[in-house]
Amino acid sequence: MGGLTWNYILKRVGMWFLTIWLGTTIIFIVPRLAPGDPVAAMIGRMTAQSGYIENAAQLIESWRARFGLDQPWHVQYFRYIGNSLRFDLGYSLANFPSRVEDMVAQALPWTVGLLLVSTLISFIVGNTIGALMAWERTPGWIRNLLPASLTFTSIPFFMLGILLIYVFAFWLRWLPASGAFGRGLTAGFNWPFLLSVIQHAILPATAIVISSMGFWALGMRGMMITTAGEDYMILAQAKGLKPSRIFWMYGVRNSILPQVTALALSLGGIVGGAVLVEYIFAYPGVGYLLYQGIVTSDYTLIQGIVFMLVFTTATLVLILDLLYPLIDPRITYERG
Amino acid sequence: MSVKMEYRLGPAQRTVDGREITLEVKNLKVYYSTPTGDVRAVDDVSFHVYKGEILGLVGESGCGKTTTAMAILRMVQPPGRIVSGQVLLDGVDLVKLNESQLRQVRWNTLALIPQGAMNSLNPVMRIHTQIAEAIVTHEGKQPKDKLRQRILDLLAMVGLPSRVYDMYPHELSGGMKQRVCIAMAIALHPSLIIADEPTSALDVVVQRVVGQTLLDVKERMDVSMILIGHDMGLQAQLVDRIAVMYAGHMVEVAPVRAIFAEPLHPYTQLLIESIPSIKERKPLKLTEGLTHDLRNPPPGCIFQERCPKVMEVCRVERPKLRQIKPEHYVACHLYE
Lengths: 336, 336
What we know:
Chain A contains 14 helices and no strands. By secondary structure, chain A is mainly alpha-helical. Chain B is globular. In chain B, 43% of the residues are buried. Chains A and B meet through helix 9 and helix 10 of A and helix 2 and helix 3 of B.
């Protein structure tokens, strides 16, 4: 009893498939609901750029055939779903010979590396601060200091990013202002490269951590106060347990449950959510790529990124769903 | 025949009336600070618990029963505080102990069966972990199979099947949870167990089962027990002596037969008269809400405003708890 059950796992994996299928279908439908023909629009743009184009009508027809747009919609739909499942996301419109999946694959490690690490740091630091703020045994000076550390949270992270670049990159010149690694270094597992990657990641990561940890701290503080009033806290004290054990195993352990749910939701935003941070720091991640796709009207690129977004979000939520029964044994018994 | 004797105020006594005592509470005062003055939740309370007996602590809600229990455990929560008095457990004054000494006393010699058994167990820990942590915290690490056998024995002693060992609290019924709490309380052979309304959240049948379990455990372990409650019927079945509290004061202490046969204090009389009977349906004599403001007790007897037999002297002088008959103590001017 307790923990994972097959029924639970099957349900969650089913939800994972359903989410991805629904997301993919919406990505398919939305552009087709938009007025106009994408190929005609593209030819139109080319005409506007280069004057007259010969045999425009034939060109449109051949391109439509090439992109499969002359097929009935259900054929297009199943081909699209099939391609998506094989991660065949098509060619980028703006950088024609490049394939979208290659572009995303190149950008994804940077984004996931930066955001996963900074989100987890923010989660751990924020929750610890919040838990200590609510713990009555926390020394007074720490309790007074902690709220001060959260004042930065009210600054939007892009403002914070600009501030950090100004102070640490231009004024003090301690850290690089943009990019993901120094010029002239070969990517791979060698020390100069890894060091450079870390150096470049510090400022954007700091911006994300500082601006988001207050969210975790406040949520955790509220939960800890609620938990402190529970009967099991009284029994834990009566049992003569060490305060540190009561704090971690009784207080934090029970207060963290809703925080983990919030973490699952915020992890979903990781892939696309850092557009502004990546833009400010010119960080070559998915957010920056998405920004470029929007600027250059690169529809296949945008679609590809949205698909990856749906896929990674659903997968991360699936992983957390599977981990959740391990931290809250009650979860698999709930209906629905 | 009235033996007038001041309730003992002398140095720590190991015997009273020729019987060995486990706990002696002397002149205990617990006040809660409020903006408009101290609420005297427990005001100059003295009583003792004989070795191997169950003392019933009764009184209406807010009379200070639970506060007394929490003060014995040294777990009065702010804004409450122990103002003065002694709590002598096996001759050791718990009021004088520091934090780490207290942790050693807790559960080793003084255990708690909590009020709200529904939420008294940590929802994210298996039953065996919660019992094991109480043992390991106080006795140190020990061989796994030895610990396992000991926990299984404890569960068997309170009539729980061995499958409970691996279960989580949410998989147990209310009565089973309360029996887990009893098993946990006796794990370290304490001298005194405080059971704070251990059956209040349970249905009548389960109340009997849990009550019987308490009796069995007491007989087998020769442990002393304070059973807090307001259910006079249940008290009559379980306890050896009854201590009646009213508005933070001890008004009567007597063996259970004596108090039901001949209650002396007018409040005790009303309390016993209010026990419903199928033979005769009678209106409730005891009315609620006439208690004086606990911040500003009137001079004289604390029960004067609700007492049907109030006299002149009751308005002026507060009666002391005196021995009227062997083992029968009462604080009332009627018997002077």
